[in-house]
Amino acid sequence: MGVTKQLYQLQEVDSGLESGTQALSQIISRLGENQAVSNARSKLASEQQGLEELKHQQHSLEWEIDDVVAKLITAEEELYSGRIANPKELANLQREIDGLKLKRCQLEDKVLEVMEQVETNSATVSRLTNELETLEEDWRSQQQQLAADRERLEATLSELKHKRELLSAGIVSQAVELYDELKRQKGTAVAKVEQGICQGCRISLSGAELQRARGDRLSQCSNCGRILFLE
Asked: Which domain CATH number covers 129?
């Protein structure tokens, strides 16, 4: 096998290594916590906290109503007990009862408002919980696939690295050095020749260049300097 073909094969292996390494980097960046899942968890936690605060507010109002009702019962029993004969005291007691009734109505209205908010927030929490469960399920499935892809790519890259070592060992060191330098400078070190044109720079080659490219020795494009490979 000619050295030019060996270098072309080395370039194909390097191309596979580069694309595989990039793909592996992208996979690794997608492994771990997902932003959409994290945002959904935060939103659900916020709604759950708000719901707990509303429930606490509802219970506090209900306890306050119970306290007002207890005072109202005591005041009404005192009013109708017949133990108070003083008109002024009776009038004061009646005002107290009226105030307690008004406060009870106001508290009951507040409780109804809070209960409506609790119902609305409960529905929101339920919806967000379902959405989060769906996101987490999709995320777990994606993570499993990414992990499998990572394992496959790492195995492929390991094989390509081994193949590169074997190829490099079978090529004259000076040719490998030239290849590495051209690859560093131009990205592509070996250019195929198709229909008399260097595919590296798209320039037509002279007859002498084509003749050299057909030989076993290294031949470089006079325009771009890449190693010419003619199948």
From this structure: 1.10.287.1490
For residue 91, how many other CB atoms are within 10 A of its CB?
A: 10
pLDDT range class, residue 1, cuts 50, 70, 90: low
**Residues 6 or more apart whose Cβ sits within 8 Å of residue 21:** 157
Q: Which domain holds residue 230?
A: 1-26+172-231
Residue listed under structure tokens 């690859």: 183
Of the given ranges (88-92, 163-167, 211-215), which has the lowest mean pLDDT?
211-215
Each residue's pLDDT tens digit, 109-158: 999 999 999 999 999 999 999 999 999 999 999 999 999 999 999 999 99
How crowded is residue 155: how many other Cβ atoms within 10 Å of its Cβ?
10
Q: With helix as H, strand as E and coil as C, how does the chain read?
A: CCHHHHHHHHHHHHHHHHHHHHHHHHHHHHCCCCHHHHHHHHHHHHHHHHHHHHHHHHHHHHHHHHHHHHHHHHHHHHHHCCCCCCHHHHHHHHHHHHHHHHHHHHHHHHHHHHHHHHHHHHHHHHHHHHHHHHHHHHHHHHHHHHHHHHHHHHHHHHHHHHHHHHHHHCCCHHHHHHHHHHHHHHCCCEEEEECCEECCCCEECCHHHHHHHHCCCCCECCCCCCEEECC
- Encode pLDDT of 36-65 as tens digits: 999 999 999 999 999 999 999 999 999 999
Q: Pick the last residue of a domain from 119, 154, 169.
A: 169
